[in-house]
Amino acid sequence: MTDLEQDNFQPWFYSEIVREHFFHPQNFLDHDLELDKYNAMGRAGSPACGDELRVWLWVDENDERIKKFYWRTFGCASAIAATSMTSVIVLEGEGMTLAEARAITPQQIMESLGGLPTRKIHCSVLSDKALRDAVNDYYRRTKQFDKIEPEATRIVDPIARVTDKDIEEAILSGAKSVEEVAQKTGVRLNDPRVGQEAAQLVKFYLEKYQG
């Protein structure tokens, strides 16, 4: 029985949008893509923990808009739905630019899905991480090294200069709440955007390291 089928006994567990993207995922591949079909590839997660995600992009070199977005994951229902929704968001209209795609947040993905259960929030973080990894890969392939932003140094709070790595290290050093992370890092919870992203990262790392 799949993760989603088990949760059918709790009809409030997932939104109808999540169910639709799980049963009818958009831009999904059941195999790795041929080399000539993409010019950027990213990944996130690990098969060891059950959630591994790969994405393949075709980027128009003239305007750096993403024209194709394919993906494959071995993750749960939330990971499948979140990545399917991410691909739809990225390809809408003329396709996002690489800069726009890099700015997608877990909160944006979850809002588009109509929400996710708290214990599944880390699955939405996975798809935006893989997308950023693919953006970096495109810049690497096209030798635009100055545009590469290593994931470990992605800034969450530009004023306090707190990165996602700082938040991860705070969790590893014993923090068990957003407030404790704020005490250790100085991240500003009174800023709505910063506070939301920090909260999502805290939940992700707590799930990852403490279960």
TrEMBL record:
GO terms for molecular function: iron ion binding; iron-sulfur cluster binding. Pfam families: NifU_N. InterPro entries: NIF_FeS_clus_asmbl_NifU_N. Residues 14-143 form the NIF system FeS cluster assembly NifU N-terminal domain. It comes from the Bacteria. GO terms for biological process: iron-sulfur cluster assembly. PANTHER family: IRON-SULFUR CLUSTER ASSEMBLY ENZYME NIFU HOMOLOG. This is Nitrogen-fixing NifU domain protein.
